[in-house]
Amino acid sequence: MMYDFSGRFHTMPASVQPQLRSGQVYRTKDLSKWSKNPTRLASRLVREDKLVPLAHGLYLHPKRGRFGQVPADDRELMRGFLDGDQYIVTGPERWNALGLGTTAVFATPLVYNRKRSGEFNLGDRRFRLRRVAFPRRPTAEWFVVDLFQNAEEAGASRAELTERLARAVRRGRFDRDELRQMARRFGSKDTQARIESAVATTDASVP
Questions:
Q1: Which of 4, 53, 76, 138 is the most exposed place for a label (fewest CB within 10 A)?
Q2: In this structure, is residue 114 part of a structural domain?
Q3: So what's the pLDDT on residue 35?
Q4: To 10 degrees, what angle do helices 140-149 and 189-203 make?
């Protein structure tokens, strides 16, 4: 309570209590809907353990589980960090699932996006971001092209990948036309040539 010079009492305004969603990542500007000074509000919420700093201007409203704070979901971290812009998570997990013989493992997720390149720590997670072109809806054939583009990082021989891809195409595991289209749009000259070589060896057997 407080009073003015007239002797009348007034109730002090209560601190703003934003309705935050558990597990969601917030940027400082997201708090402007609750305060004209979102930076100050963010600092207060951090002191109150309602927000956890992840990076400069980026915060998590954590979920609480039986054993304490639950780590943020990688997809939610990227959504917040890239401010909702489109991205694709690629790398060994996606490449190995293609069945072309790779077994690589990365310690950090590889993320293609349209804004940033470099390695970034978000809380206790580290991400490798590359600012490169990618399709809006990635297909298995695009991930094949991406694997060829990153064969050295995947610990794979391009010649062996070409042979394995030819066998996979013969078995009907990938679409020939889609492979060619993805290679033309997103592959280097070498990748285009190798994928064309793998597909061409199977064209003769197509009725």
A1: 4
A2: no
A3: 93
A4: 130
Burial group, residue 94, by CB count within 10 angstroms (0-12, 13-18, 19+)? middle
- pTM of the shown model: 0.83
**Same domain as 87, residue 36:** no
Residue 161 vs residues 80, 165, 169, 174: alpha-carbon distances, Å: 36, 6, 12, 14
The predicted-structure confidence for 52-108, as pLDDT tens digits, reads as follows 999 999 999 998 878 778 888 899 999 999 999 999 999 999 999 999 999 999 989
The token duo for 70 is 């639950």
The answer to whether 50 and 61 are in contact (CB under 8 A) is yes
Q: Which two tokens stand for residue 77?
A: 């971290």
Q: If you count them, how many residues does the chain have?
A: 207
Amino acid identity, position 145:
V
What percent of the chain has pLDDT above 70? 90
Helix, strand, coil shares, percent, the chain, to 5: 40, 20, 40
Does the pLDDT at position 41 exceed 70? yes
- Is 163 part of a structural domain of the chain? yes
Same domain assignment for residues 149 and 177: yes
Kindly report the average pLDDT of the chain as a whole number: 90
Helix (H) / strand (E) containing 206: none
Note down the domain range covering 31: 21-70
Q: Which residue has the tokens 């990938």?
A: 174
Q: Where are the alpha helices (DSSP H) in 124-172?
A: 140-149, 158-170
- Checking if the pLDDT of 129 tops 70, the result is yes
Task: List, in order, residues 6 or more apart from 167 with CB less than 8 Å away.
Answer: none
